[in-house]
Structures are given as C-alpha cells and as structure tokens.
Amino acid sequence: MTSRNNNSRGRDAAAGSNRPRSSASNPAKSTIRPRPIPGSKRPNPAPASARNTRSAASRFGLFSGVGEAGASTVGVRSRWILVIAVIVVFVFILRLAQVQIVWGPALSEKAQDQRTQVLTIPARRGTITDIHGQTLAHTMQARMLTTSPNTLRRDVGELHAQYPTVYPDVDSYIDALADDIATMVTEAAASPTTVKADEIRDKLYADTGYAVLVRNVDPDIAQEVADKYPTIAADQLDLRQYPNGAIGANVIGKLSAEEEGQFGYEAYADALLAGSDGRLTAETTKMGALLPGTERNRIPAVNGSDVQLTIDIDAQTFIQSQVDQAMADSGAKGVSAVVLDAHSAEVIAMAASNTIDPMGDIEAQVKQGKTFNNPTISAPLEPGSVAKIITAAAAIEDGKTTPDEVIDTPGSIDMAGITVHDAWPHGVVPFTTTGIFGKSSNVGTLMLAQRVGEDRFAEMLKLFGIGSPTHIELPGESQGLLPDRSQWTAGTFANLPIGQGMSLTLLQMASVYQTIANDGQRVEPRIVKKITNPDGTVVTQDKPPTTQVISPETARTLRTMFQAVTQRDPSGINQGTGPQASVDGYQIAGKTGTAQQIDPNCNCYSNSMYWITFAGIAPADNPRYVIAIEMDNPQRGPHGEGGQSAAPLFHDIAAWLLNRDNVPLSGPRDPAMLTLQMQ
Predict the structure, then answer these.
(1) Centroid of chain to Cα 384
(2) Which CATH superfamily is domain 120-308 in?
(3) Residue with the larger pLDDT of the pair 90 and 127
(4) Is 645 in the active site?
(5) Marked catalytic residue, from 385, 441, 503, 582
C-alpha cells in the first residue's frame, strides 16, 4: 500500500511537470513581457518528477502467488477497463466530430470576426500656398504612441500573480513605464514634444481599450519606444503645420483636435482639402498589428487638393506687423487692414490685430484676448464719411453736379425734421463739389444727395454691393446691414448718404473703392487663385461676377476729385482731411471716415467711442492697389500722435507696396492744386 501511494504521487507530479503552458483549451493570455524587478531572479525550472515505475516487489514478482480466482478477477477487471476506455475514446471522437464538422465553421467564423477589422487608410490633406507658392499650411508625418490600457493592466496583473517575485505589480509597472516614456520622448534631441509622466500615467489607468499616450512624436523615437515595449504602438499621425505662425492665421485658419477645419480657409474648404480616407479589411493580432497576407476589400484613399491663395505672404507679414504696431501705439481695441488688387479684386493681404498663432498655446493666447476671428469680413461697422464716395458717384454719374461747381454750404441742414451739422462750426462756405468731399462736409454731401433722390440713392447703394455678401471664399462673412427701401423713415435719408444708419465690413468698403479704381466695374473679391487636384489637374477659378456700377468717365473723375482728401496746402484752405495718407511721387485718392459707435449702456450713439477708417487707391492715376483700414476706438493716431486718423497707416502700407513692386511714379497732375473752396 505504501508503494502504491508513492507511485500515485509520482504520477501526479509527472503530469504537473509536463503540462503545457498553453494549448487550444488553455491559451496564453499574456501578450506582454514586462521587465523583471531589478535584482530579482527568474525561477529555476522545476526538477523532473520521479518516474512512475512499478514497486520493487511488483517488479520482482512478489504477487505471483495469487491463485486462479485472483487471476480471473484481474482478467474481468481488465476487460471492463478496456470496454470503458473504448467507450471514452468513441465519445471523444464523436465530440471531436461535432466540434469540427457541426460547430467548426461557425466557431471559425466567430474567431475570424474577432480578429478581422476594417482599417482606415488616411488621406493626405492638401497644402495651402500663397500667390508665389510659399507654403502657408502643410501636413507633416509624425507618430503617436498608443496602447490598450485595459489589456496592459490585465496582462501585467496576471504575470505578477504567476511570478510575484519576478514581475512587478500593476502600479509599479505603470509608474516605471510612464517615467520611461516621458524621458525617452522629452529628452531626445529630435523630439518636437514635451510630455509629463503624470499625463501618461493617467491615460494608462483609463478604463478604455484604446488610448493615445503622446502625440507628435518623432518617428525614430516612437519606434524606439515601440521596440522596447511591445504593448506600445507607434501609429502614424498627420500634423498640420503653419510655418508663418500668426501671420495670416485669421485667413488660413487651423484644424481642430479631430483634424477638421475649424477656422478660416481650412474650415471653408475642409472637404476639398481633406480628401477622402480609404479603407481595407484585414486580420490583426491581439495587439492590433496587421497580419501579412490577410488584406482584402481595399479602397484606396483620395488625397486632398492643393490650393493656391491670392494672399502675398510677404505683404501680409509687413501689413500685419503695421496693424499690430498701430494698435499698440494708438490704444485702439483692434486694427484691421485689407489690400485688394485694383482690377482683379484678388485679396493681397487681409490683416487683423490680436490674431492667434495656431502653432502656439491656444488656451493661453485666448486668455490674452487673441482670436481666430476675421473682423475684416465678420464684424460690420458704420463706415462714416468713408462711404460719402457713393453719394459723390451718384451725383456725378447722374449729372447732378460737376467737380468744380461751387455750392454755398451752411453749417447745418434740416432733413425731414432732423438737423445735421458739419463736424466743425462754420457759416456759409462756398465749397466746390470737390471741396465738399475733400473737407468732408456732411451738409454739402446731404445737399447733393437731395439732388440724387432717395430711390436712385438706394439703387446706387445696392449696385455698390452694400447689404450683400461679397461671396469671398471664407467662412463667417457678414453681409452688413442696409435698411430695406420700404422701411426707410424720415431720418434714414439724413444718415445713409454720410455713412451712418448702415453697416458694412471692411472688405465691402474695399470693394466700393475697387469699383472706382477699376473704371466703375465692381468685381467680387476673391482669395483663391487655383486648385490642384490629386491627379495633377489644375482648376483655375472662374472669372468672378462683375457689375458695371458707374461709367469709366465717372470713375476717373472721382479718382481725381478724391485726391483732394490727401492734398497738402500750407495755407490750409485747399488741404484735405487726410494729407498724412499722401505718398511722395504718387497720386493718392481716398477718404477719411469717423463714425460713432453704439454705446451698449444706452443703445444710442456714443460721444466718446468711434470707428476710424480710411480707404484709398494707389496710385490714383494708374490704380494698382486698394487699401482699406479700420481702427476700433483709438485714443491717439497710429503712430501715437495727437488726433484720430487712419491716414498715416494707409501711407505706410501704400508706400511699402509701391516701393516693393517698383510701381512707376505718377505724372504731374493738372491742376497741380485742386480747389476746395472759393475765397
């Protein structure tokens, strides 16, 4: 009996030592191999069990004395054992056949479904360039470190439970892993990313099957991490880059965290730039790695189109720096500028202060008051006197006056019971029509508007595009506000001809002056030059819609008349309101503007908050550029000087453009001095 018990233990030990670690019925669950705790040793393999040999008594025939009855009993018992064994084998075969034949296809399909995935083939987002081909936005390939936190914690826990003296517990392993990844990513010289171990640690404890641990990792560094830790994957990541930072960011825009266009042209043309992702069906490993040779149903990705804008990044850079400086020097809440090609109406520059750098810390910049908003198209304002050129255009076009007509202009005028004054007190002054606009007389402008009539003036506003969107290829454009003719009150016609009672964007203002610069033909502004599709075909933009608002003769007359605004006269008699806008050697036509803002406390016009504007044409005799500027309630001039005027900023921008592009100097003007008032 003692010998039999020992043999039984030997058989059990032998069975235990030869048991496989994994099999079809007992698969290995662990997919990771965490490092052993430093200083510990792996366990030595268990010694082979004692062999299940017969006892010495049996080997030497110690049971040979058993009688005939005993032998017969043993024989019967052996036959029963054999029968039972045959039955067991038969049942096993039937069960195996059931699994393989009956259940096999279903189980196989289920197993395949569990490891079959539809994978996305990302499309490359299109590149945005300026008019000269300089990159404004492009996509750079990087990597992101990803894992399955739930799987990682489970596998580490199982290894620790099996070998507690060799493998660390979950907390210790995650601490070490987070620290190591943070060090590898941050300290590498080529790394564009700094990351904190605590951030990685929090993600590793997340209850999820997928987590991005670190974004924007250098591909080489990401691969080092993945090679060192099989549970960490180095997945491809497309990063949008904006090499010019805040320059033009209000136009170009940026992508959201979901890689969708969020602002600017990136948002407007998101589908065009993004293209369409492809997909394929394939089998993957437990950790998501693609199994070679299992790909099927591949639909290739279609990359996004490349877009060339009309923006000149060199001009944009200079003008944006001037806008930012003007805001700082003047104490304005904001300053914006738009530059159009005088004939094509293509946007050369569109700059605004307080623009966010998409490559910087967005949250910190927002706290500083910076924004991606584009006020040149989204923030309409009352233009003030800068819009008086529309009244002049209507009067000249309809033959209601001539540039040299002398009009006795009082200091105030009654319009349907509303009294309107000039900005400075004076008696009756014999202004010429040119002088009315050169001196910016409200009274003289309204006298001319009365000659034009309300209906014709309303028609002229519509022709110039007031109250209608420009259809610029950017999101968030406001169409401004123009009261419908049927809703005009007695005071409406006392306000509109002098630029109050309506609102327009800075781009709409620039469009008005582009019409005059282009011999009376208004062209809808454009910011897209061409599109290159993924197959290499180039799509040039259709010619934008045009409207002949006034005759070429009227437009040329206006370009001469409005040079009075920038005219200098030592005596002051024939000096306009914006001589600071003049540029030596060039004829400059333009108009100053000052408009009261609405006081939110009383919902009435404020006597202390103003919009200061200037719009002009350079050169007036051979138009190349239209420049429009707005300043939100400046306390001083753009250079910190006394007075509130946007004319100095216009001068700086116009002079830079004319000099950079070597625009020929203007010829002498006849007459050399425009007469603004009779003496």
Answers:
(1) 34
(2) Penicillin-binding protein 2a (Domain 2) (3.90.1310.10)
(3) 127
(4) no
(5) 385
